[in-house]
Sequence to fold (952 residues):
Amino acid sequence: MTETGDARDVILLTASGISKRFGSTQALADVSVSFRRGEVHALMGENGAGKSTLGKVIAGLHKQDSGEVSINGSVLRPGSIDDAFAAGIRIVHQELAQCPNLTVAENLCLHNLPRTRWGTVDRAAMAERAARLVHPIEPSIDVEAELGSLSPGHRQICQIAASLDDEAKPGAEAARVVVFDEPTSSLSVSETDRLLEIIRGLARDGLTIVYVSHRMGEIFAVCDRVSVLRDGRFVQTSTVADISEADLVEQMIGRRLETPAGRLRSPGGEAAALRSLATGDQQVSHQIKSDEPSLVVRDIRSPRKLTGVSVSVKPGEVVGIGGLVGSGRSELLDAIFGIDKQATGVVSVGGRVVKTGQPRAMIAARVGYVPEDRRLQGLFFDLGIDENTVMPYMADLAGIGGVRSGSGESALVADRLEAFQIKAASPRAHPGSLSGGNQQKVLIARWMHDRSQVLLLDEPTRGIDVGTKAEIYRLIHAAADRGVAILLVSSEMPELLALSDRVLVMADGRITGELTGDEMTQKNILTLATNELAVTGQ
Amino acid sequence: MSSHGSRTGQQNGSHGLIRRIFSVQESGLVIVIAVMVIALTLLGGTKPKTRIVEIDSAASITVFDEAGEGHVAGTLPDRSISRIEVTVDGQTTIYAGSVGYRASGGVRRVTIQETVNKFLDLDNIVLVLKDASFIAVMAVGMTAVIILAGIDLSVGSIYALAGVLGAMALHELGPGTNGFVAVLAGLGVCGLVGLICGLANGAMVVGLRVHPFVITLGMMAALRGLTIIIPQQVYGEQSIAGFPEGFTRGFFKAEIAGVYPVPVIIMAIVAIGGWFVLSRTVIGRRVFAIGGNETAAGYAGIPVGRVKIIVYTVMGALAGLSACMSIGYYGSAETGAGNAYELRVIAAAVIGGASLMGGRGSALGAVLGAVIIELIGNAMIIFDIDQSWNQVVMGAAIVVAVVVDQAKRRLSAR
Fold:
C-alpha cells in the first residue's frame, strides 16, 4: 500500500453534489467525493450503484444534471472531455477507441502523426515517440507490432500510455488525475498483478488515481481510500487500512436487509416488496414437483471463461445465479444452450443427455433461452411480432415441404399475446414499434409456453418499467408453478432473492457458493461474488 | 386470424385497404413502371411496321376510306385508308389506324403498312418482357441471397457456363431428338451445372467463413475461364448451335398468338414461386430472420449455415434455368454470354427493394426491378440514344435505389 505522507493529504479533485439521470433511472443523486493528490481512490458499489457514471462525469464523458467537478479549486465545464483533458484529467476505459489493425505507434500518434519534410509519415519519429510513452510503463511492448496482436493486458497498457500523453492536445496540463473504469475485467491474473503494480507506480509519481471497481481483492491490494456508492447515493469514504471486507460489503448493500432472514422477515424489505408485487403473498418457495431434476449440467468448461460449472434444477424450481458483471453467468447459459460451440461438459434434460453445441437439439428437448440483450440476441426487427414469437417452432407447426401453417401460427401467437398482455397495434406490427417492456415480453413469450420444460432467463427484466417487471415476475412464478425448471441470471439482487428458491453465486467462471433459505441475503451474495482469485500484493 | 387482427381490420375499414395497397413494397415499382410506360408511349413516337397477310381463296378483303365507305380489294379509294378488314372463314381481322395497302400477285398476298407506336406495340412489349425474364429469374434468387445479407457476383459466369454445357449436351443429342427429351435434357444439364456452382458458393461461404463477396468474385473469374476453355477444347469454337428443333421452336421459342411467350411465362412462375417460398414457407422466413439478425437467429435455433447453403444453391440453379431459357430462345450459346449480368441482376433485386444490409426484399419486387431495367434499355433504343448510356443510367438507378432504401430505413427507425 502506498505511504500517505503529509504532502499527499492535499485535496486535488472534488466532485460535489453530482446528480445524473438516465431516462427514468437516477444514476447519481447528490454525490460528493474528494480525492487527494497521489492517492489511489476506489469508487465501489454493486452493479448499477453509479460508480462508473461518477468516473465518467469526472472525466467529462457524461454531463451531470447538477453539481460540479473542480480540480485545484477551478471548476470544470460539465460534460466537456476537452476541458477535463486540458485540466489534466485522463480516463482509461474499455470502450476507448483503438484501431487494432494499426501498430502500437500509429495508435499512440494517431492524433498527430509526425511527418517528414516530404509529407510522408515519419515512422522513425513515430516509433521513438511511442517508445517514450510506452516503455517507461512496459519495456517489453514492441511499438511496431499491430495493436490487435497484443495481449489484452498490453493493449490496456497502451491505453494507459495514450492517456498519459501530454502532447495529445496542445496546451493541456500534464496528467494529474487518471480514472480507471473496471480496468481488470478482461485481464488474466498475472496481467492484473502487473496493472496494479503500474497503478501503484503512477500514484507514487504523484498522480491521483480514481479506481472504479467492484473487485474486493484489488481494492485491498492497491487502494488507499475507498468511497462506496449505493443506488446512486454516496455512502461513505474510508481509509482502506481501517476497514474490513465485511464492512465494505455492508456499506455496498446497506443495513436494511441485513438480518439473516431479512428478505423474509422485514416487510419493508425490497425483496419482500417485489415478491408481494409478483405473487400477492409472502409465500417463498415454489412447489417442487419432483426430485428428479429437469436440467442437469455437469462440469461445463469453456475458453469463454468457464472453469467447470455444475448445476441442477428440479421441475418447478427457480435457481438464481448471482455474481458480478463478467463473472461468467451469461457465458454459462450460452454454453448450456449450445450457443458457445467450444464449451465442453454434459447437459441432460429430463434425464436424457442432449447433444451440446446445438441450440436446435436444446429446443427439441424443450429448453427455452431468453438471452441478455434483446436487441442484439433476441428480436428480429424486420419481422412481425407474430413471427418473432413463433420462429423457433415454425418448422414444427409447418406442413409438408415447410409450408407455413397460418392457422397454427396465428393460434399460438394469439394465445401468447393474450397470456402476456402484449400491447401492440396488430400481431404483425414490428417489435421496433413496441416499448422496451413489451419487446421483452415478446421475447419471453417466445419461450414461455406449454412446451417448455426448462427456461434459461438472462436478465429478464433488464431496462423495463416496474409495472412490466411485476408482470414478468408473475409469469415466472406461474411457469414455475406449472412445473417448469428455471435458471435465472440477474444483476438485481432483490429480483434474484424475490424469485429464486436457491441462489448460486459465480465469480471468475466458477460457482463460489450456494445459498439457500436464510442464507439468501444480499450480503452473502456479494461476499461470494467478490471472492475472486487471490491477488498478489496482499 | 386472432381477435387482434379482426379488430384492427374493422377500425381501418376501406380506408385501411387503400392504405395497405399503397404501403405494399411493390406498389412504388408499379407506379414507376406505369410512369415509364406512359412516358415512352406518349414521347416515343411512331414507326412504320410492315405486315404481310396471306389471303387464301376463301378470304375476302375490304378497304375502308376515311368516310368509312368500303371498297373491294384491288380498287383503291381516292381518300386515305382508315382500316382494312380481312375475312377468312367468317373470322374478320381488322387493321386500323394509319394504314397503307399494297396488293401484289393479284390479291392473294397483301402487304399492309401500319404506323405503330414505337413502344406500345405487342412485339416490342414481348421483346422487353423476354429480355427481362432472363434477368428476373436470377434476380429472384439474388433477392434471397441479398436478404441473407449476402451477395453473389458469380451469376453471370454460372449463367454462361450452364448455357455452354447445356448447349454441348443438346448439340450431342442432335437436331432430330424428341422435343420432350431435349427440353428435359436442357433443363437438367443447365439446372444441374448451376446448382453445383451455387452449392460450391454456399459451402465455401459457410465452411470457410469468408465474405460471400470474395468467394463469388473468385467464382466469377474461375467459372468464366472454364466457360471459355471447355468448348474450346471440345469443339475449338466459342459458339455452340445446332439444337433439336423441339428445344427451341418447340418449346422455349414456341410461337403462340404471334408472339413468343414461354420465357415470360417461366418468369411469372418463378416470381410467384419465389414470393411463395419467401413469405409462406419456413425456410423463407428463416432467410429473413438470418439477414435481419444473425445472432438472434442462432439463439432461436435456426440452422444458419444450412439455410445459407440452400439459398446459394437455389441461386445457382436459377442461373442455370435462365441460361436454359436463353439458349432455347436464341438457338445458340456463346462463351461471352451473361457478361456483366451480375450488375443487372443485383440492380434488379436492389431496385426491387432488397436491402444490401439484409433482412428485406421481395421476389415480386425483383421481377418488377428487372422489368424497369429492361424498360430503361428499351427507352435508349426508342429515343435512339447510344447504348453505352444504358450503363450510365443503370448505374445511377442502383445508387438511387439504395439511397431511397436507406432513407426509408431511417424514417421507419424513428
About this structure: The interface with chain B takes residues 337, 339, 359-360, 362-363, 369, 371, 376-383, 387, 391-392, 394-395, 398, 401-404, 410-411, 413-414, 417, 424-428, 432, 446 of chain A (CB under 8 Å).
